Hints:
A: mainly alpha, 3 helices, elongated, B: alpha+beta, four-stranded antiparallel sheet, 17 helices, globular
Amino acid sequence: MTTRERHRDRVEINPRTPIEPEADRPREGFREAGDAFLDAADDAIEQALSRDARTFLLQNRQMGGQ
Amino acid sequence: MPRPHRHQRRKPTEVGRPSVPKILGADVELGNFILGIAAPDGTGQTASRRLLREVPGVESGFASRNVQDWGRKFLPTNGGCAYIDSDHLEMALPETFSAFDHVTYWRAMLATVRHAMRHANDGLPEGCRLQVLVNCSDGHDNSYGSHVNVLLTRTAWDDIFHRRPHYLAYLAAFQVSSVIYTGQGKVGSERGRPEVDFQLSQRADFIETLVGLDTMARRPIVNTRDEPLCGSTVLDATSGSSLARLHVIFFDSTLCQIATLLRVGTLQMITAMLEAGCVNASLALDDAVIALGRWSRDPSLTARARMTDGGMATALELQFRFLEDAERFAARGGFDGIVPDADRLLVVWEDTLVRLRAGDFDTLSRRLDWVLKRRLLQGVLDRRPELSWQSPELKYLDQLFASLDENEGLFWACERRGQVDRVVDGAAVENAVAEPPGDTRAWTRAHLLRRVPTDHIDHVDWDHVRVKRPGHHPWIPRTTVVPLPLPFGATRATNEIHFAGDKTVEAVLEVLGAIDEDRYDGGSSIRTSSQ
Lengths: 66, 531
C-alpha cells in the first residue's frame, strides 16, 4: 500500500484539487488549453503585447551570477 | 545555557550512521534592471542598489565588509538576509525545518522585495521603471542562481564527495530527473545550445559538468561548495561527526507553491535517504549532463536517457523509482524527526508524478511553473497565428511570467484568478515577512538583532552574532560572540524565556552563552550533548 493510499482520507492539497486522478481521463494536449484557462492572464497578456517587447528584451541585460 | 532541543536527539539510522534534521535554506538572485534606460552593460548595478536600500531593516548607506556580498544585512524581521551579488539583489531565506514553512518564507521574501520595488520605483524619473524578475536567465546567455541548501552530516558529505561515487551519481540522477516538476520553463535556448521552442529548465543550458566547485562558469549539477555555516560543531565526541551543508545550485526559481514545495521537500527526503545509506545505485545515469539536456527539451516527457546499467529511462520513470524508494524508507520510519510532513510530501510527489504520466495538464498547470507557462504561451500562439515560438513577443511573455510586479506578472494574474493551487495561506506569508521561523536558530538571530542596539552589533553571520559590549575600561569595548552553531538549535522553544520581560541586553547575552571573541573558536566547543 502506498503512502498516498494510506493517507488518502486525511491528506489534502487543496479542496479544488482532488488527489485521486481520473484514470480514464483523456490525455489533454497543450493546444486544448481552452479559453477559460487563458482568461485569467488575458488582460496581462494583452497589455504586454501592446508594449515594446524588443526594448524590454534589449534592456533586460543581467550580469551573470551564481 | 539553552535547554537541549528535541531535534538534537539524533536518530540512529539502519546502518548506524548519524542523521540530522533536514534544515532548509535558500539564497536567491533576482533579475533586476531599469526599463527606460538604455545602457550597453545593463542597469543591474543601479537597480540592485536601489532595491537593497528599500528592503525594510536595511539602513541607508549600509555597506558590508564583504566586497562580493555587498551590503549584506541580516534582517531583524524574520532572520533572513539581503545583499547584492554580481549586481543582483540576493535574498537569503531564514532557516526552516518544514518544506511548507520554506514555501511560506519564500513567498514572504517575494513580498519583501515587491515592497522594495514599489518604493524604489517611486524615486525613479518618469518613463523609467525598475523591474524585478523571479527567474534564472535573461535570454542573453546570462544566468543567476536560485540556490537551495540542506543540512547534512559530515559523514554524508564525505560519502557523496569523497568516498562513494554512487552516492553522487544517485543525487545527480535525482536532481536532473526532477526538472519535470522543478523547472520554470523557458522559451528557446542559450549559450549556443541547439535551438528549441520551449524547454522545462531555465538552468539546463548553463549546466556543464556533473560535479564541481564553480558556480559562475562550468556550473555543475552537484556543487561542492563546503560552507557548513555551523561553526565547527561536533555532533558527538564518539563519532566525531560534524555538520555540512549541501549547496544546490541546480534548480530554477519557481512561483507555483506546489513546485516550490516539491523542489525542497523531495530534496529533504533524498538527502535523508543518502545520509542513512539508503542509496539505490541502479538509478545512476550514464551521463547526467546529457540526460539533463535531453529531458529539459522534452515537454512530452517521453525522451529516454541511458542508465549506467545500459537501460534507458524517461525522467518520469526515474522519478517514480526515487519515489518508491522514499515510500519504503518512510514505511520504516526513516523520515521521522528528520523530514517534517514527509507523508504529505510523498502524497503530493506521487500525485504529481501520476498526473504527469496521465498528461493531466489541467491539474498540473495549477502546480508546476513550466506547465502553466507553456499553456499560457501556447494559448497566445493559438490566438495569434502571426506569432511563433521564435517571436520576441513570446520571449517577452516568458520573462513577464516571472515579473514580480503584480500588475504585469503573468503568474500573479493566474494566481489572482484562482488558477494556481496554494499550500500556504496569505496570513502565514504576512506573518513570515515580520517574524522568524520558531523552530530554527533564525528565531534567536532575529530577536537578538531586535534587542541589541544596532550600533552595538559588530558582525552577524548565520552561525554567530558578534556584539560590542562595555569593557572593564570604558574606552576599550570588549567584543563577545553569541554562537548559533546548530541550525536546529536556539529555537523559540529554548530561548523565548530568555528574551521575556525587561531583561537587559547584558543579561540576554549572558544567558545565551556569549563568550569573549578571543575565546570563540568557531563553535567547536559546542557539543550537542551539552547544549
